[in-house]
């Protein structure tokens, strides 16, 4: 019998409620004789959201262009319109961030509840007199605000300010020191918890610490998967271990989180970092995106995103540089040996059903190959793999990844070329985006037909105004659609043309630089046999 995800969540929540009624393990109230050693005054029933962590099914808005300007400043805008059209890599980053929230909005809920509690924002502006009064449904302003704070987990200075290497005992001590200042504390933290490999990341809000004797402490938390409940993480400072039961019974294995001094799976993020303007990691003229970066310095990293349309957590990436160093999942083992590379574990879990891939940061200038690995899949999944760098983005979208399938994506470090090889029949969409001192462009080559073991190559030559595409190891003619947007100070114009045919072994060259605007045709050159010479041309009408 197959259940929908929503029905499974209802069944799971009902099971939790029944266990609680009939003696399941629940967190006692702090009033039941525990020794409170630090307390912010926050309480889940009054100061947490009354609704549960949610996926995108309930969302009218996640991030929009105005939120990107709030996060990063006007550098994300390609024009002066209100709201502005975003530069292509900003648009792609926003789209991937919004897509990643389909695993849950816990990070945003954990952070924003604390922001409201500490009065850094006025809750009355979001439709209620108190946090507990706020409603999610038909409240796009609140949805956007939760999404904005969710997004800060992958930006700086927030990510660099996150405490990632403290032991469980250190976390307790740091929270006690901060919480003893009460609601006016210098900083208010959110708490990130992970399972091995930084999977099933979840964000919760700590608000008090109790000393239960014999070195055992409870970190009292508001868990947005369980509205209004008092819950706790148990830390044994003597053993330097921590445990969190994510359901009413610890007998449910997928609900048990635990770690020790070596796992680094208990992390603290300070509120103060989120309240600052974040460094733009994808703007061509910006800071490095890292704390301490110099003004006008080119960003130091290319970000690699794996996002899923159907589900989360089973497909994996393995990034390999030219020297054989690796970052990502080798089978079910997480590895990181690429010099200077980093990863951002994503916190989003909605009732522990989903788990996002980390966001990978590869130093600019490092060439690498990505293996898209479906060996952990149980059912087919539709996924996108995207590189977003300083002023550019490129990638492959709509890959129908089957269990056991392994595909290869080679992306140039300068954002100009890609090569995608599939082990199955595919019809993916290739994307390119470029920010430039002249007009910006976004390109989509949609639904290019590929045989198993075939390769599709594409390249963007902005200076000459040409986008090229070529197929190899494909025996049949490939059919695809072309779409691109041109963005300048006057706004955005779009070209589309469907059912372009490209014979196996030929190279197509789209002469976008000479396009005059909406309604005008453009030229497609065909290099028969990919000899380096255009042998024929086609006129493509703009279907708009």
Features:
544 residues, alpha+beta, Cathepsin B, Chain A, eleven-stranded antiparallel sheet, nine-stranded antiparallel sheet, 9 helices, elongated, disordered N terminus
Q: Would you spell out the secondary-structure blueprint of this structure?
A:
Blueprint: H1 5-21, E1 35-39, H2 44-47, H3 65-72, H4 88-100, H5 106-117, H6 140-151, H7 158-161, H8 168-179, E2 189-195, E3 199-211, E4 216-222, E5 231-236, E6 241-245, E7 256-260, E8 266-270, H9 271-274, E9 301-308, E10 316-321, E11 326-330, E12 333-336, E13 342-344, E14 359-363, E15 368-373, E16 381-389, E17 392-401, E18 406-411, E19 417-421, E20 429-434, E21 440-446, E22 455-461, E23 466-472, E24 478-488, E25 491-502, E26 507-510, E27 522-527, E28 536-540
Antiparallel strand pairs: 1-3, 2-3, 2-8, 3-4, 4-5, 5-6, 6-7, 9-14, 9-16, 10-11, 10-15, 11-12, 13-14, 15-18, 16-17, 17-20, 18-19, 19-22, 20-21, 21-24, 22-23, 23-26, 24-25, 26-27, 27-28
Given this structure, which CATH class of one domain is correct?
A: Alpha Beta
Shape-level CATH architecture of one domain: Alpha-Beta Complex
Question: How is the CATH topology of one domain named?
Answer: Cathepsin B, Chain A
Q: Approximately how much helix is present in the residues?
A: 10-25%
SSE class: alpha+beta
Give the strand order, joined by hyphens, for the main sheet.
12-11-10-15-18-19-22-23-26-27-28
N/C terminus separation: 46 Å
